[in-house]
Amino acid sequence: MARASTTSDAFNAVAEPRRREILSYLAGIERPVGEIVAALGLEQPSVSKHLRVLREVGLVRMRCQGRQKLYRTNAEAIRPLHEWAETFERYWQHQLQRVKERAEEMIRQGSTDLNSPDPNLKEK
Q1: Higher pLDDT, residue 69 or 122
Q2: pLDDT tens column, 9-21
Q3: Alpha-carbon distance 50 to 32, whole Å?
Q4: What is d(CA 53, CA 17) in angstroms, rounded to the nearest whole number?
Q5: Range 10-73: architecture per CATH
Q6: What is the pTM of this model?
Q7: Contacts of 11 (CB under 8 A, 6+ apart)
Q8: Are 22 and 50 spatial neighbours (Cβ–Cβ below 8 Å)?
Q9: Which SS3 state, helix, strand or coil, does residue 16 take?
Q10: Domain-by-domain residue ranges, the chain?
Q11: DSSP class per residue in 92-112
């Protein structure tokens, strides 16, 4: 099966870790390419390539200020990624709640060995 193009949609675009890093760096503030290069320690051609991909799928917007190109995230385009990730956030919140409940039960019983199975705790 052929791999989808990185510019086919936002999910394929953010599959690349450096693009996620750039998106995180741009979160909430507009920045010039040179600042992105310096902050992330990447080569300028690489950053430009990643920004082009992110622009093509709509995750970032660019505007020119004189000769400088400024980039910022496009929150509306990021929304589908956020909504998809929320599914897993609910899963992990449930898992953390289970850990909390087990720790609280162990404290009530006076046990400090977190590795020993507790027959009184029910698997959920």
Answers
A1: 69
A2: 889 999 999 999 9
A3: 14
A4: 13
A5: Orthogonal Bundle (1.10)
A6: 0.66
A7: 81, 84
A8: yes
A9: coil
A10: 10-73, 78-124
A11: HHHHHHHHHHHHHHHHHHT--
